[in-house]
Amino acid sequence: MLRTRATPWRCLVLFLPAWALALAASAAKAADTVDWRLGLGGGSAQGRTDCVTGYACDDQGGQGQLHVDAVIDEAWAVRLSAFGARRFHGGDTSPAGTAFGGDFEVRGLALSGSYRWAFAPDWDLEGRAGLASLQTRFRYAAPFAGSVSHTTTQPLLGLGLGWSPAPDWRWSLEWDVTRFEAYRTQGPLRLWGLALETRF
Fold first, then answer.
1. DSSP string, the chain
2. How confident is the model at residue 178 (pLDDT cuts 50, 70, 90)?
3. Is 64 exposed, middle or buried (0-12, 13-18, 19+ CB in 10 A)?
4. How far apart are CA 22 and CA 43, in angstroms?
5. What's the distance, CA 138 to chain centroid?
6. Left (φ > 0), alpha (ψ -120 to 50) or beta: where does 25 sit?
7. Residue 184 above 80 pLDDT?
8. pLDDT (tens digit, 9 = 90+) per residue, 29-87?
9. Residue from 170, 186, 149, 188 nearest 67 by CA
């Protein structure tokens, strides 16, 4: 069986700063010094998977994201985002050395800082860097049954090319990269897609 390592303390690396951000942003909002942006998007995902003979192997999947930005000024912001990616088909090896197949699903919560450069009227380029807490769930393929999960904290980098048809609305092509880890399977997780964002 795949070993599951419980690491709830690692989540504090992300959740405590996120909680502090929420409190600080709420206070700043009351003083009218911070605006908010809400975004929703989706697209494709690619996660590195190992192949096991006799089982499906596919590193392509779908993904969806939801984010909230605390806007410090027109260039700088802090983002809290939730995302999910599924289903990557592949295999892993148990602690006993037995190879098995199945599919991977990844869920994450990320905190990052961003800088947005308006290089032309209505167009901008945004760069992001931060940390993500990711839970990877592996579901066994038949004849196995059940699933196991593993949580890690990983760095996250992102880029976004945005177009604003109106002052409070923005479409963007988004690209993010982080890492996911099961037992012995680990590697990059890449997310790309289209997002719609509004300021409130």
1. -------HHHHHHHHHHHHHHHHHHHHHHHTT--EEEEEEEEEEEEE--B--TTS--B-EEEEEEEEEEEESSSSEEEEEEEEEEEEEEEEEE-TTS-EEEEEEEEEEEEEEEEEEEEEETTEEEEEEEEEEEEEEEEEEPTT---EEEEEEEEEEEEEEEEEEEETTEEEEEEEEEEEEE-SS-EEEEEEEEEEEEEE-
2. very high
3. middle
4. 28
5. 17
6. alpha
7. no
8. 555 667 899 999 999 999 877 888 888 888 899 999 999 999 988 899 999 999 999 88
9. 170
- Written as six digits, the tokens of 46 are 């690619």
Alpha-carbon torsion angle 165, 125, 191, 40, nearest 10: -30
pLDDT of residue 12: 46
Residues 101 and 79 sit within 8 Å (Cβ to Cβ)? no
**Residue found by looking up tokens 């390592």 in the block:** 5
Banded model confidence at residue 165, pLDDT cuts 50, 70, 90: very high
Both tokens of residue 99?
């190879």
Q: What is the DSSP annotation of 93-136?
A: E-TTS-EEEEEEEEEEEEEEEEEEEEEETTEEEEEEEEEEEEEE
Token look-up 């289903």 returns 87
